[in-house]
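Chapter review: from sequence to fold.
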Amino acid sequence: MCEMKRSLSRLIRLLRRSALVALALGLFLGMTLWVGSRPVQALPEYATRTGEACAACHVSAGGGGPRTLRGLLWAARGRPDKVPSLPNMLIAPRVSAGEELYDIACAGCHGLKGEGLFAIELIGTGISAPATRSFILYGIPALGMPGFEGQFTDAQLNTLVTYVVGLGNGLLAPPLDKSPLQPGKLTCQPTPCAQTPSRSKGN
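The token string follows.
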């Protein structure tokens, strides 16, 4: 009789554990199916509300991190449904080199070498100057690329277009991963030790 009670007790414990494992497995599978059926985006409510890509408000095209001037203004206004535009606000004052302009405006999405990060690869595309100019000025809203109309001087825009076309056609080599520096030369000369006056024994 005692043995029968023990066996029954073991069976009840085994059934409880099995039920808990089955419940946990069911919850896990249910959550996986529920989460897996929805696309994951960074702060989708902002993207849905504003209709803008992350690059409109963030220096990093993937979102997060430091904000652009538009992003700061948008946050200061209480995050409205429309990200404010900044007409005629230069994003690279006094910058004239094509590589620097590209680094400021394009590298966050297209990669430092045009290899493509969040946006398409530019290397080997053979993109034309008129198309490049149009994309820079007006963006490609369907692909999340912002426009930069009024944010470059004419000279800056021409330089940037030339640089991007050069990257796309292979006429310009992508920037190096590192800049070679001349090895440092150290020179030193021994300095003579100062002579200390000797003390006389009488003092």
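Two observations follow directly from the output. The helical segments are 2-36, 44-50, 69-76, 98-105, 107-110, 129-138, 154-169. Residues 42-86 form one domain.
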